[in-house]
């Protein structure tokens, strides 16, 4: 078996540009490549609004103790995307918005202490966003 290296700057589907299908390891299931890729992620200091690093992250706003709004560089196509949030100390961190929906250009997070439920700033908060870009 000869090893191959594929080097490309642009990857497009044959039928449609955004239609790239990947077959599962077992060969019986398929998924669309673009559906499984994170559309944004943020790694930030929960005591302020400084990104340690991000992808598709325009800015972070400190909305008060333990609450932040993350703004996308490129908007999502709708507000039905998923946000996964984790923090540095095992406390309870969850994604929410005041209207109980996400906006296409941003989402809010709330970090709280699991033992008291009170909002608290975490040293490190990390989020990943999956859904469709506009």
List key phrases describing it.
elongated, 134 residues, mainly beta, 4-stranded antiparallel sheet, 10 strands
Number of strands: 10
SSE order in H/E notation? EEEEEEEEEE
Helix amount: under 10%
**What fraction of residues sit in β-strands?**
35-45%
For the termini, the CA-CA separation is 42 Å
Tell me what the structure shows.
The strands form 3 sheets. Strands 4-3-10-7 form a 4-stranded antiparallel β-sheet, with no helix packed on it. A 4-stranded antiparallel β-sheet has the order 5-6-9-8, with no helix packed on it. By secondary structure, the chain is an all-beta fold. The mean pLDDT is 82. It has no helices and 10 strands. Helix content is 0%, strand content 40%. It has strands spanning 21-23, 30-32, 40-44, 51-55, 57-64, 67-72, 82-87, 92-96, 106-112, 125-130.
What would you say about this model in short?
With about 130 residues, the chain is mostly beta strands.
Please specify the SSE layout and strand pairing.
Layout: E1 21-23, E2 30-32, E3 40-44, E4 51-55, E5 57-64, E6 67-72, E7 82-87, E8 92-96, E9 106-112, E10 125-130
Antiparallel strand pairs: 1-2, 3-4, 3-10, 5-6, 6-9, 7-10, 8-9
């Amino acid at each position: 078996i000869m090893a191959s290296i594929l080097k490309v700057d642009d990857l497009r589907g044959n039928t449609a540009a955004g239609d790239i299908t990947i077959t599962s390891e077992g060969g019986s299931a398929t998924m669309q490549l673009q559906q499984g890729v994170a559309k944004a992620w943020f790694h930030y200091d929960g005591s302020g609004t400084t990104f340690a690093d991000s992808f598709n992250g325009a800015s972070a706003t400190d909305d008060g103790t333990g609450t932040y709004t993350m703004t996308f560089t490129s908007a999502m196509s709708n507000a039905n995307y998923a946000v996964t949030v984790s923090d540095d100390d095992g406390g309870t961190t969850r994604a929410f918005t005041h209207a109980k929906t996400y906006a296409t250009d941003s989402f809010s997070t709330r970090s709280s202490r699991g033992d008291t439920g009170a909002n608290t700033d975490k040293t490190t908060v990390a989020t990943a966003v999956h859904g469709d870009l506009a």
